[in-house]
Design goal:
This protein has about 290 residues and is α/β, with parallel strands linked by helices. It folds into 2 domains: about 200 residues, Rossmann fold (3-Layer(aba) Sandwich), CATH 3.40.50; about 70 residues, Helicase, Ruva Protein, domain 3 (Orthogonal Bundle), CATH 1.10.8.100. The chain has a 7-stranded mixed sheet, sandwiched between helices. Strands 1-8 form a two-stranded antiparallel sheet. About 40% of the residues are buried. Helix 4 links the parallel strand 3 and strand 4. It is built from 12 helices and 9 strands. The N and C termini lie far apart (about 65 Å). Bound molecules: S-adenosylmethionine. S-adenosylmethionine binds next to strand 1, helix 3 and strand 3.
Length: about 290
C-alpha cells in the first residue's frame, strides 16, 4: 500500500469508515519527500551515541511514522482518535519498531519515556494538530525530558510567533517562554497541496534545540513566567500599566515603577520590547520585593 497516493489513502480510510475530524486538526501528509525531509530534520540532531527514539504526536494514517520508523531505532506514536488505530495497524503492519498508543498527548507522561527507554536518545517529531500547538510545545519543553530536539510541522503564523524577536509584531509571551528553554529555528515552508484535506493556510517546519542550561538566571521559574504573561496581558499598555493591572494583588504601582527603574527599564516601555534577559532581571527584582513583604 502506498500511503502517499491519494487513491490508495482514500481507499484505506474508506474501508475503515474513517471521516476527517476538523476539531482534531486532521490534515494528513500526502507528500513522501516532505515526510522524509521532516523526519530527517529530527534525525540529524542526534549524536548517535545511544539508540534513537522518535516520539510522534498524532500519527494519523502513518505518513510521517513510516519515515521515522525507517530512520530511528524505535518510534512511539501517540494518537487520540481511536478510529485511526485499526488504520495504523494496517498501514504500519510489519513495522516492529513502532508502538502506537491510543491516548491524549496532552495527558501523556513524557517523563515515563526516560524510564521506559533509558538507553535511547529521544527526539520529538510530529505534524502537530494545530489547535494545541503551543500547549504541546510547552509540555515537551517543561517535561524535563532531555529531548535532543523537537521538530514540528505547524501553521506558518504559529512558527513566526515562536521564532520572533523582541520588538517584532509576532513576539509574545509564548516566544519569550520558548526561548528560555530552547533555540528555535524555522527550517522550511510546506504548502497546502502537501495535505489531505488541504488546509487554508501555509505550514512551516519549526525545530527547537533545547538549551543545556537556561540562558538567563531566574530566582523562581513560575514567577518569571507569571511576569512574562503579565507584561503581555495588555500589549498596547506600557509596562507599569500592564503589570499594575495583572499583578495588582502583589505589588503597588510605586513598587512596580521602582522595580522597573532599578532594572533600567523606561516607564514608557512595553513588554513586547523586553529581551529574555530583561524579563529575568525584572522578575528577580520583583521577586525580592515580594519576598521582603
Ligand atoms: N501525522 C499525520 C500526518 O502527518 O499525516 C497526521 C497529522 S494531523 C495534522 C494531527 C494528528 O493528531 C491527527 O491524527 C489527530 O487525530 C491527532 N491528534 C489530535 N489531537 C490529539 C491529541 N490531543 N493527542 C494525540 N493525538 C492528537
Amino acid at each position: 500500500m502506498n500511503l502517499y497516493s491519494v487513491t490508495q489513502l482514500k481507499d484505506l480510510l474508506e474501508r475503515h469508515g474513517f471521516f476527517f475530524k476538523k476539531n482534531l486538526g486532521q490534515n494528513f501528509l500526502l507528500n513522501e519527500s516532505t515526510a522524509l525531509r521532516i523526519a530527517s530534520s529530527a534525525f540529524e540532531t542526534l549524536s548517535h551515541k545511544k539508540k534513537t527514539l522518535a516520539v510522534e504526536i498524532g500519527p494519523g494514517a502513518g505518513a510521517l511514522t513510516l519515515q521515522l520508523s525507517e530512520l530511528f531505532d524505535r518510534v512511539v506514536a501517540i494518537e487520540i482518535d481511536p478510529h485511526l488505530i485499526p488504520i495504523l495497524e494496517e498501514s504500519l503492519a510489519g513495522r516492529d519498531n513502532v508502538t502506537v498508543m491510543n491516548t491524549d498527548a496532552l495527558r501523556f507522561d513524557y517523563k515515563a519515556l526516560e524510564r521506559d527507554f533509558p538507553d535511547y536518545e529521544i527526539a520529538v517529531c510530529s505534524n502537530l494538530p494545530y489547535y494545541i500547538t503551543s500547549e504541546l510545545i510547552m509540555r515537551f519543553l517543561e517535561s524535563e525530558v532531555p529531548f535532543a530536539s523537537v521538530t514540528v510541522l505547524i501553521q506558518k503564523e504559529a512558527c513566526a510567533r515562536l521564532i520572533s524577536k523582541p520588538g517584532c509584531a509576532d513576539y509574545g509571551s509564548i516566544t519569550a517562554a520558548v526561548s528560555y528553554y530552547a533555540r528555535a529555528e524555522k527550517l522550511f515552508l510546506v504548502g497546502p497541496g502537501n495535505f489531505i484535506p488541504k488546509p487554508k493556510v501555509d505550514s512551516a517546519v519549526l525545530r527547537l534545540i533545547p538549551h543545556a542550561h537556561p540562558p538567563v538566571e531566574v530566582m523562581q521559574e513560575s514567577f518569571f513566567f507569571k511576569i512574562i504573561r503579565a507584561a503581555f496581558s495588555a500589549r498596547r499598555k506600557t509596562l507599569p500599566n500592564a503589570l499594575g493591572v495583572a499583578l495588582g494583588e502583589l505589588f503597588t504601582k510605586e513598587e512596580i515603577a521602582a522595580a522597573l527603574e532599578e532594572c533600567g527599564i523606561s516607564l514608557t516601555e512595553r513588554g513586547e520590547n523586553l529581551s529574555l534577559n530583561q524579563f529575568a532581571v525584572l522578575s528577580n527584582t520583583l521577586c525580592k520585593i515580594k519576598d521582603r513583604k
